[in-house]
Amino acid sequence: MNKQKIFAIANSQLAIGIWRWNKSGRLAIAIGLGLILLVGTISISVPVIAAGRTQKILSTPANVIWGELFKPDSKPIARVKSGDRVVMETISHEGILPDQGDTVRFFAQGGIPKNPKSTISRQQILSDQLQTKAKVKKTGPGPHVITGPVYIEGAVPGDVLEIKTLDINYRSPYGAISNRHGKGALPGEYPENNAPIYSKVIAIDARREVGIFQPANNLPPIEIPLKPFIGLMGVVPANPADAANSVPPGNYGGNLDIKLLGRGSSLYLPVQVPGALFYAGDPHCAQANGEVALTAIECSLTPTFEFVLHKDMKLATPMGETKDAWIAVGLDKDLDEAMKKSVREYLQIANEKYGMTKQDALMLGSAAIDFDVSQVVDIVKGIHGTIPKQLFPTK
Protein backbone atom coordinates (compact mmCIF):
# COMPACT_ATOMS: atom_id res chain seq x y z
CA MET A 1 0.00 0.00 0.00
CA ASN A 2 1.32 3.45 -0.97
CA LYS A 3 2.07 5.91 1.78
CA GLN A 4 1.30 9.65 1.62
CA LYS A 5 2.96 12.43 3.52
CA ILE A 6 1.80 16.03 3.45
CA PHE A 7 4.29 18.56 4.72
CA ALA A 8 4.98 22.30 4.82
CA ILE A 9 8.27 24.02 4.19
CA ALA A 10 8.89 27.61 5.33
CA ASN A 11 12.09 29.40 4.38
CA SER A 12 12.52 31.06 1.01
CA GLN A 13 9.13 29.69 0.02
CA LEU A 14 5.85 28.42 1.45
CA ALA A 15 5.25 25.04 -0.09
CA ILE A 16 2.81 22.20 0.22
CA GLY A 17 3.81 18.93 -1.34
CA ILE A 18 2.59 15.40 -1.63
CA TRP A 19 5.23 12.68 -1.63
CA ARG A 20 4.29 9.17 -2.68
CA TRP A 21 6.36 6.08 -2.13
CA ASN A 22 6.00 2.95 -4.25
CA LYS A 23 6.00 -0.56 -2.84
CA SER A 24 9.77 -0.72 -2.75
CA GLY A 25 9.88 2.38 -0.57
CA ARG A 26 11.50 4.55 -3.23
CA LEU A 27 10.34 8.10 -3.86
CA ALA A 28 8.23 8.04 -6.99
CA ILE A 29 6.53 11.45 -7.27
CA ALA A 30 6.99 14.83 -5.64
CA ILE A 31 4.47 17.58 -6.36
CA GLY A 32 4.79 21.01 -4.79
CA LEU A 33 3.22 24.39 -4.94
CA GLY A 34 5.33 27.30 -3.75
CA LEU A 35 4.66 30.93 -3.04
CA ILE A 36 7.97 32.56 -3.89
CA LEU A 37 9.21 36.04 -3.11
CA LEU A 38 10.08 37.84 -6.30
CA VAL A 39 11.84 41.14 -6.80
CA GLY A 40 9.34 43.19 -8.75
CA THR A 41 6.44 40.76 -8.46
CA ILE A 42 5.10 37.78 -6.56
CA SER A 43 3.78 34.88 -8.58
CA ILE A 44 3.01 31.25 -8.05
CA SER A 45 6.19 29.36 -8.87
CA VAL A 46 6.85 25.67 -9.17
CA PRO A 47 10.38 24.91 -7.99
CA VAL A 48 11.74 21.98 -9.93
CA ILE A 49 12.96 19.68 -7.16
CA ALA A 50 13.74 16.00 -7.57
CA ALA A 51 15.27 13.42 -5.29
CA GLY A 52 18.82 14.74 -4.92
CA ARG A 53 22.22 13.20 -5.42
CA THR A 54 25.64 14.52 -4.44
CA GLN A 55 28.72 14.89 -6.63
CA LYS A 56 32.28 15.82 -5.66
CA ILE A 57 34.01 18.35 -7.92
CA LEU A 58 37.78 18.61 -7.60
CA SER A 59 39.81 21.77 -8.21
CA THR A 60 42.21 20.08 -10.62
CA PRO A 61 43.76 22.06 -13.50
CA ALA A 62 41.18 20.56 -15.87
CA ASN A 63 38.30 21.94 -13.76
CA VAL A 64 39.43 25.54 -13.21
CA ILE A 65 40.11 28.71 -15.15
CA TRP A 66 42.11 31.73 -14.03
CA GLY A 67 41.35 35.42 -14.45
CA GLU A 68 38.06 35.34 -16.36
CA LEU A 69 34.58 33.85 -16.12
CA PHE A 70 33.18 30.96 -18.08
CA LYS A 71 31.40 31.73 -21.35
CA PRO A 72 28.23 30.39 -23.02
CA ASP A 73 30.24 27.85 -25.03
CA SER A 74 32.26 26.58 -22.04
CA LYS A 75 32.12 22.80 -21.65
CA PRO A 76 30.51 21.77 -18.34
CA ILE A 77 32.47 19.54 -15.99
CA ALA A 78 29.34 18.19 -14.32
CA ARG A 79 25.61 17.97 -14.91
CA VAL A 80 23.06 18.15 -12.11
CA LYS A 81 19.31 18.28 -11.65
CA SER A 82 17.35 20.59 -9.43
CA GLY A 83 17.65 19.27 -5.91
CA ASP A 84 21.15 17.87 -6.46
CA ARG A 85 24.16 18.85 -4.40
CA VAL A 86 27.81 19.35 -5.24
CA VAL A 87 30.79 19.38 -2.91
CA MET A 88 33.01 21.79 -4.83
CA GLU A 89 36.66 22.47 -4.10
CA THR A 90 37.73 26.09 -4.56
CA ILE A 91 41.22 27.57 -4.65
CA SER A 92 42.46 30.90 -3.33
CA HIS A 93 44.53 32.96 -5.74
CA GLU A 94 46.51 34.62 -2.96
CA GLY A 95 50.03 33.22 -2.76
CA ILE A 96 50.20 32.07 -6.38
CA LEU A 97 49.99 35.42 -8.17
CA PRO A 98 53.16 36.56 -9.97
CA ASP A 99 53.75 39.56 -7.69
CA GLN A 100 53.98 37.27 -4.65
CA GLY A 101 57.01 35.34 -5.86
CA ASP A 102 57.73 31.78 -4.76
CA THR A 103 54.57 30.33 -3.20
CA VAL A 104 56.24 28.22 -0.52
CA ARG A 105 58.48 31.08 0.58
CA PHE A 106 55.53 33.48 0.56
CA PHE A 107 53.48 31.38 2.96
CA ALA A 108 56.43 30.43 5.14
CA GLN A 109 57.60 34.01 5.70
CA GLY A 110 54.57 36.19 5.16
CA GLY A 111 53.73 37.44 8.62
CA ILE A 112 52.98 34.24 10.52
CA PRO A 113 53.55 34.68 14.27
CA LYS A 114 56.92 33.40 15.46
CA ASN A 115 55.49 30.17 16.78
CA PRO A 116 56.54 26.74 15.52
CA LYS A 117 52.94 25.59 15.61
CA SER A 118 51.98 28.38 13.20
CA THR A 119 54.81 28.00 10.69
CA ILE A 120 53.63 26.95 7.24
CA SER A 121 55.79 24.16 5.81
CA ARG A 122 56.12 23.01 2.23
CA GLN A 123 54.05 19.94 3.06
CA GLN A 124 51.13 22.12 4.20
CA ILE A 125 50.86 24.16 1.00
CA LEU A 126 47.71 23.11 -0.82
CA SER A 127 48.87 21.04 -3.78
CA ASP A 128 46.03 22.34 -5.97
CA GLN A 129 47.40 25.87 -5.60
CA LEU A 130 50.82 24.73 -6.76
CA GLN A 131 49.32 22.72 -9.62
CA THR A 132 47.26 25.72 -10.74
CA LYS A 133 50.30 27.97 -10.71
CA ALA A 134 52.33 25.44 -12.69
CA LYS A 135 49.75 24.20 -15.20
CA VAL A 136 46.85 26.65 -15.62
CA LYS A 137 47.28 29.59 -17.97
CA LYS A 138 46.01 32.90 -16.61
CA THR A 139 43.70 33.98 -19.44
CA GLY A 140 42.08 37.09 -17.99
CA PRO A 141 43.04 40.20 -16.03
CA GLY A 142 41.28 39.09 -12.84
CA PRO A 143 43.12 37.27 -10.04
CA HIS A 144 40.52 34.59 -9.31
CA VAL A 145 40.80 30.85 -9.82
CA ILE A 146 37.29 29.61 -10.63
CA THR A 147 35.92 26.06 -10.50
CA GLY A 148 33.22 24.96 -12.95
CA PRO A 149 31.00 25.18 -14.83
CA VAL A 150 28.12 23.00 -13.67
CA TYR A 151 25.19 22.47 -16.04
CA ILE A 152 21.76 22.51 -14.38
CA GLU A 153 19.40 20.40 -16.45
CA GLY A 154 16.24 22.17 -17.53
CA ALA A 155 17.55 25.67 -16.78
CA VAL A 156 16.75 28.21 -19.48
CA PRO A 157 16.98 32.01 -19.64
CA GLY A 158 14.17 33.52 -17.60
CA ASP A 159 14.41 30.90 -14.86
CA VAL A 160 15.93 31.62 -11.46
CA LEU A 161 18.64 29.44 -9.95
CA GLU A 162 18.80 29.26 -6.17
CA ILE A 163 22.21 28.29 -4.82
CA LYS A 164 22.02 27.09 -1.23
CA THR A 165 25.31 27.03 0.67
CA LEU A 166 24.77 24.14 3.04
CA ASP A 167 28.26 23.88 4.52
CA ILE A 168 31.84 25.12 4.09
CA ASN A 169 35.02 23.31 5.11
CA TYR A 170 38.58 24.63 5.35
CA ARG A 171 41.28 23.21 3.07
CA SER A 172 44.53 24.67 4.44
CA PRO A 173 46.00 26.14 7.66
CA TYR A 174 46.64 29.58 6.15
CA GLY A 175 45.06 32.52 4.37
CA ALA A 176 46.33 35.87 3.12
CA ILE A 177 45.37 39.54 2.95
CA SER A 178 46.89 41.79 0.27
CA ASN A 179 46.99 45.48 -0.60
CA ARG A 180 48.27 46.35 -4.07
CA HIS A 181 49.42 49.65 -5.52
CA GLY A 182 46.64 51.53 -7.28
CA LYS A 183 43.91 49.32 -5.82
CA GLY A 184 41.79 49.18 -2.67
CA ALA A 185 39.87 52.02 -1.02
CA LEU A 186 42.95 54.29 -0.93
CA PRO A 187 44.70 53.80 -4.27
CA GLY A 188 47.90 55.81 -4.54
CA GLU A 189 48.21 56.16 -0.76
CA TYR A 190 48.83 52.52 0.12
CA PRO A 191 50.89 50.36 0.13
CA GLU A 192 53.22 52.79 1.86
CA ASN A 193 56.37 54.11 0.16
CA ASN A 194 54.85 53.34 -3.23
CA ALA A 195 55.51 49.63 -2.78
CA PRO A 196 53.81 47.45 -5.41
CA ILE A 197 52.29 45.05 -2.88
CA TYR A 198 51.97 44.48 0.86
CA SER A 199 50.71 41.05 1.93
CA LYS A 200 50.19 39.34 5.24
CA VAL A 201 49.77 35.60 5.76
CA ILE A 202 47.15 34.63 8.33
CA ALA A 203 47.47 31.37 10.27
CA ILE A 204 44.11 29.58 10.33
CA ASP A 205 42.95 27.70 13.41
CA ALA A 206 40.06 25.74 11.90
CA ARG A 207 39.11 24.06 15.17
CA ARG A 208 38.53 27.39 16.95
CA GLU A 209 37.61 29.19 13.71
CA VAL A 210 39.99 32.09 14.22
CA GLY A 211 42.68 33.65 12.06
CA ILE A 212 45.88 34.97 13.65
CA PHE A 213 46.84 38.47 12.43
CA GLN A 214 50.40 39.41 13.39
CA PRO A 215 51.07 43.20 13.31
CA ALA A 216 54.43 44.16 11.81
CA ASN A 217 55.70 46.21 14.77
CA ASN A 218 55.72 43.46 17.42
CA LEU A 219 52.28 44.21 18.82
CA PRO A 220 50.49 41.14 20.20
CA PRO A 221 48.74 38.92 17.64
CA ILE A 222 45.07 39.68 16.94
CA GLU A 223 42.54 36.86 16.65
CA ILE A 224 39.99 37.40 13.90
CA PRO A 225 36.76 35.34 14.09
CA LEU A 226 36.33 33.34 10.91
CA LYS A 227 33.05 33.41 9.00
CA PRO A 228 33.78 31.58 5.74
CA PHE A 229 31.88 32.33 2.55
CA ILE A 230 32.38 32.05 -1.18
CA GLY A 231 32.95 35.50 -2.63
CA LEU A 232 32.36 34.55 -6.26
CA MET A 233 29.28 32.54 -7.22
CA GLY A 234 27.61 33.00 -10.55
CA VAL A 235 25.97 31.80 -13.71
CA VAL A 236 27.44 32.43 -17.14
CA PRO A 237 26.51 35.88 -18.51
CA ALA A 238 24.70 35.98 -21.82
CA ASN A 239 27.16 38.53 -23.18
CA PRO A 240 30.63 36.94 -23.49
CA ALA A 241 32.22 40.37 -23.01
CA ASP A 242 30.96 40.35 -19.41
CA ALA A 243 33.02 37.21 -18.80
CA ALA A 244 36.35 38.69 -19.91
CA ASN A 245 37.34 39.72 -16.37
CA SER A 246 36.55 37.82 -13.17
CA VAL A 247 36.61 40.96 -11.00
CA PRO A 248 33.38 42.94 -11.60
CA PRO A 249 30.09 41.38 -10.44
CA GLY A 250 26.88 41.75 -12.40
CA ASN A 251 23.29 40.55 -12.72
CA TYR A 252 24.79 37.09 -13.32
CA GLY A 253 26.32 37.19 -9.83
CA GLY A 254 30.05 36.61 -9.96
CA ASN A 255 32.34 38.42 -7.55
CA LEU A 256 29.64 39.73 -5.20
CA ASP A 257 31.76 39.54 -2.03
CA ILE A 258 28.75 39.61 0.31
CA LYS A 259 29.85 38.13 3.61
CA LEU A 260 26.30 37.16 4.63
CA LEU A 261 26.28 34.49 1.91
CA GLY A 262 27.95 31.88 4.09
CA ARG A 263 26.69 28.68 5.64
CA GLY A 264 22.90 28.42 5.61
CA SER A 265 22.34 31.12 2.99
CA SER A 266 20.76 31.18 -0.47
CA LEU A 267 21.73 33.22 -3.50
CA TYR A 268 19.12 33.70 -6.23
CA LEU A 269 20.40 34.44 -9.75
CA PRO A 270 18.54 35.02 -13.03
CA VAL A 271 19.59 32.33 -15.52
CA GLN A 272 21.31 33.86 -18.55
CA VAL A 273 22.13 30.88 -20.78
CA PRO A 274 20.80 27.32 -21.21
CA GLY A 275 21.98 25.13 -18.34
CA ALA A 276 22.86 28.21 -16.24
CA LEU A 277 26.51 27.00 -16.03
CA PHE A 278 27.26 27.67 -12.36
CA TYR A 279 30.79 28.37 -11.11
CA ALA A 280 32.45 29.41 -7.83
CA GLY A 281 35.72 30.86 -6.58
CA ASP A 282 37.28 33.62 -4.48
CA PRO A 283 36.84 31.77 -1.17
CA HIS A 284 37.12 33.85 2.00
CA CYS A 285 37.72 32.83 5.61
CA ALA A 286 36.60 36.27 6.80
CA GLN A 287 35.78 39.68 5.35
CA ALA A 288 34.62 43.00 6.72
CA ASN A 289 32.10 45.08 4.79
CA GLY A 290 33.98 47.32 2.38
CA GLU A 291 37.04 45.01 1.98
CA VAL A 292 39.05 48.23 1.96
CA ALA A 293 42.62 46.91 1.57
CA LEU A 294 41.67 44.98 -1.59
CA THR A 295 41.34 41.42 -0.35
CA ALA A 296 40.00 39.90 2.86
CA ILE A 297 41.34 36.69 4.42
CA GLU A 298 41.54 34.74 1.19
CA CYS A 299 41.73 30.99 1.84
CA SER A 300 40.91 27.80 -0.03
CA LEU A 301 37.57 26.25 0.97
CA THR A 302 35.25 23.39 0.07
CA PRO A 303 31.60 24.47 0.04
CA THR A 304 28.60 22.17 -0.33
CA PHE A 305 25.98 23.66 -2.63
CA GLU A 306 22.42 22.58 -3.36
CA PHE A 307 20.73 23.82 -6.53
CA VAL A 308 17.03 24.61 -6.80
CA LEU A 309 15.62 25.68 -10.15
CA HIS A 310 12.64 28.04 -9.99
CA LYS A 311 10.32 28.21 -12.99
CA ASP A 312 8.12 31.29 -13.50
CA MET A 313 10.02 33.27 -10.87
CA LYS A 314 10.89 36.70 -12.21
CA LEU A 315 14.18 38.17 -11.04
CA ALA A 316 16.42 40.68 -12.79
CA THR A 317 19.27 41.04 -10.30
CA PRO A 318 20.91 38.90 -7.60
CA MET A 319 19.04 38.49 -4.33
CA GLY A 320 20.20 36.80 -1.13
CA GLU A 321 18.52 35.13 1.79
CA THR A 322 19.54 33.88 5.20
CA LYS A 323 17.44 32.22 7.88
CA ASP A 324 16.70 35.63 9.39
CA ALA A 325 16.85 38.14 6.55
CA TRP A 326 16.49 39.00 2.91
CA ILE A 327 19.48 40.62 1.20
CA ALA A 328 18.77 43.38 -1.33
CA VAL A 329 21.74 43.71 -3.69
CA GLY A 330 22.75 46.89 -5.53
CA LEU A 331 25.62 46.88 -8.05
CA ASP A 332 27.10 49.80 -9.99
CA LYS A 333 30.45 51.41 -10.76
CA ASP A 334 29.05 54.49 -9.00
CA LEU A 335 28.55 53.80 -5.28
CA ASP A 336 25.63 56.24 -5.14
CA GLU A 337 23.86 54.35 -7.91
CA ALA A 338 24.58 51.02 -6.23
CA MET A 339 22.90 52.41 -3.11
CA LYS A 340 19.83 53.47 -5.09
CA LYS A 341 19.54 50.03 -6.67
CA SER A 342 19.78 48.30 -3.30
CA VAL A 343 17.11 50.57 -1.79
CA ARG A 344 14.80 49.97 -4.75
CA GLU A 345 15.20 46.21 -4.36
CA TYR A 346 14.41 46.52 -0.65
CA LEU A 347 11.25 48.48 -1.49
CA GLN A 348 10.17 45.72 -3.87
CA ILE A 349 10.75 43.05 -1.24
CA ALA A 350 8.79 44.96 1.41
CA ASN A 351 5.98 45.66 -1.04
CA GLU A 352 5.64 42.26 -2.67
CA LYS A 353 6.48 40.04 0.28
CA TYR A 354 4.84 41.98 3.11
CA GLY A 355 2.29 44.20 1.37
CA MET A 356 3.77 47.55 2.43
CA THR A 357 3.47 50.55 0.17
CA LYS A 358 6.84 51.58 -1.18
CA GLN A 359 6.46 55.01 0.42
CA ASP A 360 5.96 53.44 3.84
CA ALA A 361 8.77 50.97 3.19
CA LEU A 362 11.12 53.86 2.45
CA MET A 363 10.19 55.46 5.77
CA LEU A 364 10.67 52.16 7.58
CA GLY A 365 14.03 51.73 5.89
CA SER A 366 15.35 54.91 7.46
CA ALA A 367 14.56 53.57 10.91
CA ALA A 368 15.12 49.84 10.72
CA ILE A 369 17.02 48.63 7.61
CA ASP A 370 20.81 48.65 7.43
CA PHE A 371 22.50 49.25 4.10
CA ASP A 372 26.16 48.25 4.06
CA VAL A 373 28.95 48.56 1.54
CA SER A 374 29.73 45.02 0.44
CA GLN A 375 32.95 46.06 -1.28
CA VAL A 376 34.47 49.05 -3.08
CA VAL A 377 37.40 47.24 -4.73
CA ASP A 378 35.88 45.20 -7.58
CA ILE A 379 35.36 47.88 -10.28
CA VAL A 380 31.58 47.44 -9.87
CA LYS A 381 30.84 48.42 -6.28
CA GLY A 382 28.29 46.70 -4.09
CA ILE A 383 25.70 47.74 -1.50
CA HIS A 384 23.51 45.25 0.31
CA GLY A 385 20.48 45.96 2.45
CA THR A 386 19.74 43.48 5.23
CA ILE A 387 15.99 43.11 5.75
CA PRO A 388 15.11 41.29 9.00
CA LYS A 389 12.24 38.88 8.52
CA GLN A 390 11.12 39.23 12.13
CA LEU A 391 10.56 42.96 11.62
CA PHE A 392 7.43 42.27 9.61
CA PRO A 393 4.33 40.83 11.29
CA THR A 394 2.84 37.78 9.66
CA LYS A 395 -0.87 37.56 9.03
TrEMBL record:
Annotated transmembrane regions: 27-50
Superkingdom of origin organism: Bacteria
Name of protein: Formamidase
Gene3D superfamilies: Acetamidase/Formamidase-like domains
InterPro entries, alphabetized: FmdA_AmdA (IPR004304)
Alphabetized GO MF terms: hydrolase activity, acting on carbon-nitrogen (but not peptide) bonds, in linear amides
PANTHER family: FORMAMIDASE C869.04-RELATED
Keywords of this entry: Membrane, Transmembrane, Transmembrane helix
